[in-house]
Write a structure and sequence with these properties.
The protein starts with 6 loop residues before the first helix and ends with a strand. The strands form 2 sheets. It has a 7-stranded mixed β-sheet, sandwiched between helices. Strands 6-7 form a two-stranded antiparallel sheet. The protein has one domain: Vaccinia Virus protein VP39 (Rossmann fold), CATH 3.40.50. It is built from 7 helices and 9 strands. Helix 6 packs across helix 7 (about 160-170). The protein is of the alpha/beta class and about 200 residues long.
Length: about 200
């Protein structure tokens, strides 16, 4: 079986949860409000890697049915405290839902999946989305895959590599990529890919 996660990266977030969340900017993911306009009011959304729960809080306030998850118990606990609701502890490779969600979002979380394992994780996401449903994710790009100065693994796909992974994962009726350059939460500014895809009906 291909690698689906890096244990050292999970260990970093477990050890540094409080410090990491303390330096994150308070604003909501910039791509989220426009993406939510694609969904019907009350749509069901699975969030992978919810961190401290800021995006989940925004989506819940906007009237969506949100299931926040995180692969790190310490992160999930911080999100639970913010949201005042249970947050499921789940790694990406533990996702086994079938046609359950109108959308699956992953803000700066799938970028930690080893590149060899990314198609399998994306296939799980594709399977979890209802026919005609949506997916939104962001990845750091540029440079080689590997570890940063904090010991976190990044897959850093090029736009072409990302598209190949998505095409291998399932039938997407639409696939959009936005490239940007943004400051990081911990470390130097980076180039990013924001991917929006829709599952075929």
């Amino acid at each position: 079986m291909v690698d689906a996660f890096d244990p050292d990266t999970l260990a970093f977030y477990a050890a540094e949860a409080s410090a990491y969340l303390g330096i994150r900017p308070p604003n909501v993911w910039h791509a989220l409000p426009e993406f939510l306009e694609r969904l019907q009011n009350g749509a069901s959304i699975l969030e992978l890697g919810c961190g401290g729960g800021a995006d989940a809080e925004y989506m819940i306030a906007a009237g969506f049915e949100v299931e926040p998850t995180d692969g790190v118990p310490e992160m999930a606990a911080r999100a639970e405290a913010r949201l005042d609701r249970p947050v499921r502890v789940m790694r990406f490779d533990e996702l086994d839902a079938v046609s359950r969600y109108d959308a699956v979002i992953a803000n700066a979380s799938l970028l930690h999946v080893p590149l060899s394992g990314l198609p399998d994780i994306l296939a799980r996401i594709h399977r979890a989305i209802k026919p005609g449903g949506w997916h939104l994710a962001s990845y750091k790009t540029g440079g080689a895959k590997g570890f940063d100065e904090h010991g976190r693994y990044y897959n850093r796909p090029s736009a072409e590599q990302a598209e190949a992974c998505y095409r291998a994962a399932g039938n997407w009726v639409s696939y959009e990529v936005e490239e940007s350059f943004e400051p990081g939460y911990v470390g130097k500014p980076s180039a990013w890919l924001t991917i929006t895809a829709r599952k075929a009906c």
